[in-house]
Specification:
Distance between the termini: 62 Å
Strand content: under 5%
Largest sheet: none
Number of helices: 9
Order of helices and strands: HHHHHHHHH
Shape: elongated
Mean pLDDT: 79
Length: 221
């Protein structure tokens, strides 16, 4: 009888240990889920704000983002691409505008896969369009919202290397920092976000960069 009690006690201890381990795993997974939800919400809020800003710009063509004409040093890319961008037309044709608006319509509907492809097709068909830089930015943004961060990284880099004089460069640099953050490259994220603050002080992108820096792990600041 005593031996049976000892065996039952041992089994009970083992079960309690297993339960504690399982609870720990659940807590870790819950924390990770909440973290992912928070980042996704941040991305969606930021994306929605930029959509509204673009719509506002469309209503006021003469308005531009502060510091938009500042040239950002390339982060990869080719000289040939830069030359091609410099040869862009000064105004989109009606055909280009229709194609761009159709792609943007997909974006506003939340059809990010289709929108990214449509903007990519636009760039391939109209590489010298005045809207090509915006299209490239939205290709990257669509990838970012889909959490395809490797594609987003390449896309935002292309905005800066192929269209260095584009008004979208400050936004692309900011989102490059966001993307490094999402990939866990915290030192690189800090470096890029600090570049945003230094190059575009007192602008909306600088404020966004400061907010994102505050979310970096303490050992990465």
């Amino acid at each position: 009888m005593q031996q049976s009690l000892v065996e039952l006690y041992t089994q009970l201890e083992a079960l309690q240990t297993e339960i504690r381990q399982l609870r720990g795993q659940v807590e870790v997974q819950t924390h990770e889920l909440e973290r992912l939800k928070s980042r996704q919400q941040d991305a969606l809020v930021d994306f929605d704000r930029r959509l509204r800003e673009l719509e506002r710009r469309a209503q006021s063509p003469s308005s531009t983002e502060p510091g938009g004409s500042v040239t950002t040093p390339p982060v990869g890319g080719t000289i040939g691409n830069a030359k091609a961008a410099s040869a862009r037309t000064t105004a989109p044709t009606s055909q280009e505008q229709q194609a761009y608006d159709a792609a943007f319509g997909l974006l506003k509907q939340g059809l990010y896969d289709q929108a990214g492809k449509a903007f990519g097709d636009f760039i391939a068909q109209h590489p010298r369009s005045a809207l090509a830089d915006n299209a490239q930015y939205w290709v990257a943004e669509a990838a970012y919202v889909r959490r395809d961060f490797r594609a987003a990284l390449d896309g935002f880099n292309r905005v800066m290397t192929v269209y260095p004089d584009s008004p979208k460069v400050p936004d692309a640099l900011l989102k490059l920092g966001y993307t490094h953050h999402e990939l866990g490259a915290y030192d690189k994220a800090r470096e890029v976000l600090n570049q945003v603050i230094a190059r575009y002080p007192n602008t909306s992108v600088a404020k966004s960069a400061e907010q994102r820096l505050s979310k970096l792990p303490r050992d990465a600041r």
